Amino acid sequence: VLGKEISQLDEEGLIELRRNVGYLFQEGALYDSMTVGENISFSLERQIKKQTPEEIDFIVKSTLQKLGLLNAIHKMPDELSGGMKKRVALARTLALKPSIILYDEPTAGLDPATSKEIIELILEMKNTFGISGIIATHDLVCARLASDRILILHEGSVEAEGTFSSLEQSDNKHVKQFFQY
Fold it and tell me: How far is it, in rounded angstroms, from Cα 150 to Cα 139?
């Protein structure tokens, strides 16, 4: 991962590698007692590389601006729609400048229009910021639109790997079940 053989890393090496990996929780995992801005600054304030309050404020505002959420900086999570919560959670992850983002069911519970918006954000993270993404999803539309390569798991092992179109044509019974709509 990121040019490092994980099995060869000691604890300090693993911790350093993990600093380059962001995570977008399925439900966003925002702190409900904090505003949008406070949710994003919370993780920045706990980084090893300490930043001034002015630097943190700049990162928070610029990250929210990139995602079209600057006007929500003082809102509480319960004032946000499901799609806005996902975008705020993504902003919190982006503020840490990861090289890889792990997405846990990023379109779960969203309407089709908001799902498409989230997929477009995932693609923007890849294309604009060069951030690789690993998406765990059951949403075939998300998989088709957001992936370069798909792995299908069965009983804890990789059953098949390929592009969406190649897997859609597979004769493997465990793979075919995903494409029967």
Answer: 12
Sign of CA dihedral 160, 166, 171, 175: positive
Q: Letter for the amino acid at 21?
A: V
d(CA 141, CA 150): 12
Q: pLDDT, tens digit, for every residue of 23-39?
A: 888 877 899 999 999 99
Alpha carbon distance 64, 70 (integer Å): 5
CA angle 34, 82, 71 (to 5 degrees): 55
pTM for the full model? 0.81
Name which of 63-72, 90-99, 172-181 the model is least confident about.
Answer: 172-181
Q: What contacts 161, CB < 8 A, 6 or more positions away?
A: 149, 150, 151, 152
Buried/exposed code over 117-152 (b: 16+ C-beta within 10 A; e: otherwise): bbbebbeebeeeeebebebebebeebbebbbeebeb
